[in-house]
Write a structure and sequence with these properties.
The chain has 237 residues and is mainly α. The chain has helices at 4-38, 40-47, 49-52, 65-81, 83-94, 100-138, 150-167, 170-179, 185-190, 192-206, 211-236.
Length: 237
């Protein structure tokens, strides 16, 4: 029977390695956030493009709001740029305990996740948010004028960018499950009608109450699900 003292060194080593990798992730996030801070003015001009059509510049209602907004942009940028480092550190920590199928699944995720997250964030910035603002501001009519603060605008925008970035990783998640043997293409095909319904539900939750905008979000999600089926077929073989 194994003594607790014999097993504890292995546990301590794993915890020490986990601590080291967490510190690497945090250090990477801080360094890249500093880079995001240095580029924050250019990034802010990019993020303000959807609002510029309705309001020349955002306002601020609290003295600390400009500084906190710049910090929010810096940390969001640093977190996005740090995604490959975060995924690699998680992969390296779990690697010794993985089977061959699991290594293949995680390797696929490691490569594809940041790219699809960027695609989802860009789709949100250039398509969803402009349409969303148009629909929401249309309720104001001639009786109201927009006076949006920088803090509320960034909260609105970054939530959409983060949510769409995660949703666009549907092929990565399902492809990883297929690579690990958890699901197969036949299962995904059989559940297609439910998946399409879920795509419209997700679109309704993520977008303003406008049918056109919801369809605009649902169609890419359905296409991503079909891509997942193709990837599942490839990985199953």
């Amino acid at each position: 029977m194994r003594n607790d003292n014999e097993s504890s060194p292995g546990v301590i080593e794993h915890l020490e390695e986990l601590r080291k990798r967490i510190l690497i992730v945090l250090a990477g996030w801080i360094v890249l956030s500093v880079a995001g801070y240095l580029l924050s003015k250019d990034i802010l001009q990019l993020l303000l493009q959807p609002l510029a059509r309705y309001q020349e510049k955002p306002v601020f209602t609290r003295p600390v709001e400009p500084f906190s907004s710049i910090l929010r942009i810096a940390f969001f940028t640093g977190g996005f740029l740090n995604l490959p480092n975060l995924l690699y550190q998680a992969w390296a920590f779990l690697l010794p305990a993985m089977t061959a199928k699991e290594k293949r699944a995680v390797g696929f995720t490691l490569c594809a996740f940041p790219l699809l997250f960027a695609a989802g964030a860009a789709f949100s910035l250039y398509v969803i948010v402009p349409f969303g603002l148009r629909v929401l501001f249309s309720f104001a009519g001639d009786s109201m004028k927009p006076l949006i603060s920088i803090g509320s605008y960034l909260s609105f925008l970054l939530v959409f960018m983060g949510a769409l970035g995660l949703v666009f990783n549907l092929p990565v998640i399902l492809g990883g499950f297929a690579s690990a043997g958890i699901v197969n293409s036949g299962f995904l095909i059989s559940k297609r009608r439910y998946a399409i319904l879920c795509c419209f539900v997700i679109a309704a939750l993520l977008t303003p109450p406008d049918v056109f905008t919801q369809i605009l979000v649902a169609i890419p999600l359905i296409i991503l699900y079909e891509i997942s089926i193709i990837l599942a077929k490839i990985f199953n073989k």
